[in-house]
Amino acid sequence: MIRTRRHWILIGGSALLIGSSVALAQSAVVSAFDATLPDARGISRFSRPGTITLLASDGAVIQKLGPATREKIKPGEMPLLVKQAFIAAEDRRFYEHNGVDIWGIGRALVRNVRQGAVREGASTITQQLARTVFLSQDRTITRKLKEAALAYKLERQLSKEQILEQYLNYVYLGASAYGLSDAAWVYFSKTPNQLNLQEAALIAGLPPAPSVYSPLVNPDLALERRSIVLNRMQQAGFITASEAEQARNSPLDLKPAIPKYFNSSAPYFTSWVAQQLPQLLTPEQIEVGGLKIRTSLNLDWQKKAQQVVRKYAPFNTEGVIVSMEPGTGLVRVMVGGKNFSSSQFNRATQGLRSPGSTFKLFPYAAALSSGVKPEDIFVDAPRCWSGYCPKNFKNKYFGNISLADALKNSLNTVAVQLQDKVGFDAIIGTANKLGIGNERPLGKYYPMAIGAYEQTVLEMTTAYAAVANRGVYVKPMAFEEIRGPEGNVLWSRRIDGEKGRRALDSEVADAMNWMLQRVVTGGTGAAARLDDRPVAGKTGTSEGARDLWFIGSIPQLTTAVWFGYDNNAETNSSSGEAAWAWKQFMIQVKGSYNVQNFPPKPVLNRPFTGPQRQSRTTTGATATDENGDQPFSSGEEPTTDKPATPPRRYIAPPGGPPVDENFMPLPVQ
């Protein structure tokens, strides 16, 4: 007996050892294979290839592009009726199996053989989720094996409720609806918790063939499919026979709607984003998608700006508002027109318009850089340069006047005089440093000083922002951060963004801001005055009031307003309309910033460094200017051994009509 007992103990021990070894080996194999499969716990971050989500600066959704789930249902908020409908329709043993339903496979096989066609699928909800998130739709044995393995892993890592909720958030349900919430909105203009029995059953019947069973495409087939789902819900005990009958006899009662976030809530801005994105990411990154892009846009401000344009644009003109932070370049607002659905032309970035007297920023800044002081006296009087005779608004002339007062009153003759004093090259160079004239070169024409060369609103806004930023130019930026499919940072403004560069000396920028403040406190920009904080800005009106501008800054924000007709017709209005609209926008957003003052007016003591000059002949002008410097009449410098270039009539440069307040070009002779 002892021998027998030892024998059985030995056998039992050996069996236990072998069994344990086999179990450990099996576990090791499973673990090794399992390690090659994706981690199901990251499923909530899933995004389909090609999807792009655009977010405002505060994280609010602006638009979702591509095959994206536009609105997900939060955990624990999925309606019971909906869950029952999908379980009955797609996976009646959902709570019994561990990811793969062997009984379901057998049942489907028997039925399909009897029917002689594929009448019932065998994939569980867990398998469908695994296929949607991790695999392709290829009908191969390899894919089916991976699908089964992933289904088992999903069941180990997630609860049944988590699996069901994720499935209902990602399943494609036709008509560009990805997930239950999207489908409820697209077909019935409802939220999921508003769906009734017949609506839930109809949506639950869509997954096998969304485009075929869609009630928007085949309403009769949709009704047949709905009846099947209702029968299965009755068989499962989810509803009574009378409830099923009543739902079967109900009409479709569709109320179609566009998917949420399908259209952009700031279309002019997002069209600009689409143009900028390829500069930051590779084509492959954009194609793969799964991108979440946090932009610079303040969506609330954007809506306010759009309302201001629609309300205050005079005489049915078009309007633009662009607002950006000088220190960061972040574009907070971009309204490119009254109505994007009527016209997709982005007047903020694509429209080339005469800037009028807003262009005077550049000759004045060039003059200060060259040693001219705000207190220097100029003579404001009718005057011609080689046949070009600019006029002041309403032919009003002030005689002796300081440079600062000339800007305050937007005097055209003084702006053109500055070209004589400092030279075309100094003005063009200053404009180039401030982002103007680099892509479309500025020519050496006298009307340049008062806005002869067309610019975009965004370019002019950026130039004024650089002055508000004490002379540091920061390129306009639409992006804060871009994250990839796994949540990894692909681009960050703080790390990868362009840094500012100095365009003007700080004392020159401070002097310009001091003079621009006087434009608002007592000059042409008085309509833009804010009661609680300083504003530095400038009006601009092109010939015939075809373009109405105001560009103004508080220390933390620069905003430009433009009004005009697309066909360049006269507006019969004034730039005061733009200044008033600027104020109506700013009084709604200024509270986001603390009250700050611009730096005080600096003392400028730099010596004057004008261009090298030769004797020049002018038409209708004295031989010397108020500082004793002899003015010159064109961008060409004659030699000393031949006479000066004879006077020429002004010929308008390419790109648009002559410009500025009351400007009257002379005919070509």
Q: In percent, how helical is the residue content?
A: 25-40%
Structural class: alpha+beta
What low-confidence regions span 5 or more consecutive residues with pLDDT below 50? 22-30, 614-669
* Overall number of strands: 14
Strand content of the residues, in percent? 5-15%
The rounded Rg comes to 36 Å
Strand order of the largest sheet: 2-1-3-9-10
Largest sheet: 5 strands, mixed
First-last Cα distance: 134 Å
Tally of helical runs: 22
Shape: elongated
Description:
This protein has helices spanning 2-35, 80-90, 102-115, 125-134, 141-157, 160-170, 180-188, 197-204, 210-213, 219-235, 241-248, 267-276, 283-288, 299-312, 361-369, 403-408, 412-422, 424-433, 457-468, 493-496, 506-522, 575-589, and strands at 52-55, 61-65, 291-295, 318-324, 331-335, 377-380, 399-402, 472-473, 479-483, 489-492, 501-502, 536-541, 547-554, 557-564. It contains 22 helices and 14 strands. Helix 15 crosses helix 18 (424-433). The strands form 4 sheets. The protein has a 5-stranded mixed beta sheet. Helix content is 38%, strand content 10%. The chain is of the alpha+beta class and 669 residues long. The radius of gyration is 36 Å and the shape is elongated. Residues 22-30 and 614-669 have low confidence and may be disordered.
